Amino acid sequence: MLAAEEYKDIEEKIERGTRLTREEGIRLFHCHDIAWLGAMADKVRKRKCGDIVYYNVNCHVNLTNICTSHCKFCAFGRDCDEKGAYEMTKEQALNLVADAMKDPNLAGLHVVSGLHPTWSFDHYLGIVKAIHETYPQLYMKGFTGVEITHFAQISGLSVEEVLIRLRDEGGLQAIAGGGAEILSDRVRDELCPNKATADEWLEVARTAHRLGIKSNASMLYGHIETLEERVDHLLRLRELQDETGGFQTFICFPFLPKNTELGLKIKQTSHWDDLRTMAISRLLLDNFTNIKAYWVMLTVPVAQVALGFGANDIDGTVHKETILHDAGAESPTSLSEDKIIRIIREAGRIPAACDCNFNILRKFA
Known about the structure:
Blueprint: H1 8-16, H2 22-29, H3 34-49, E1 52-56, E2 58-62, H4 90-100, E3 108-112, H5 121-134, E4 139-142, H6 145-155, H7 159-168, E5 172-175, H8 185-191, H9 198-210, E6 214-221, H10 227-244, E7 247-254, H11 271-284, E8 290-292, H12 295-298, H13 300-306, E9 313-316, H14 337-346, E10 350-354, E11 360-363
Parallel strand pairs: 1-9, 1-10, 2-3, 3-4, 4-5, 5-6, 6-7, 7-8
Antiparallel strand pairs: 10-11
């Protein structure tokens, strides 16, 4: 299926399984043939991972929204004395998980949080340790590269020491993919200068992978970044994946502007851009097996369509998502497992429940 003549060379490389260059990635972002982009990405998806679509039966645990970062794209973070600020106690976190345990198929937790100005690393660790000791059967995916960098800074420990303690005491099995935003110093200096740099985020992932801890990767797009910076972000992830092989899935996060400082001047991405970015991510990230269509940010209908644009992972049931809904996400705060299975089946794919390391727990042929 050839697009315009100007993309024939790229299509031939995709057909051969040859790696695309930076220049070719930039050209793809200027392609207006969305059907062709989708077809190319879907062909690569099928070749790499077949027709299984992964999902989790999981629960998000956001320990606090009090945060020192003050990122311009964030609607979740609060100052201590600001309306809506909260900080969970250990008991409240355990109660949240206990409520989620009413689902007999609950398999895991996704723990992320704000960078609290007075909490110590031991405080964070104490909460996840209590959860892990109470519910050892649940897999624990937790904290982003930004949070782990913060833990190292406030504790005086190295990133490696922080990760080892989270793994050995807190039961951490994988790292969340957030906080990468755009791996560009220009963008980060403008939007989030108070948290981990691009190099620091990448170093956390590199260190985790060396320790045998898998991680996810992400990109927050649709704000002040250029298309070239989107491509450069993807290529920095691809380069680290060549080095370590430790990334499990890539997540495209479209910027949600509501209730953010940036929202006064930037509009939300179009679904066309969301699907284009999903497809190009699949084509450039040739060493990633899994690409996630995160329904919370994309909305359920767009996430379902994205399964035809290179995605083979649709995240999970979530159970009361809050961070992105503060920014105006119009999706539900959770989905039932039955609905996720139906969404995947309607797309002609095979639903498979998995843990945070993509080990299949149940498959529905």
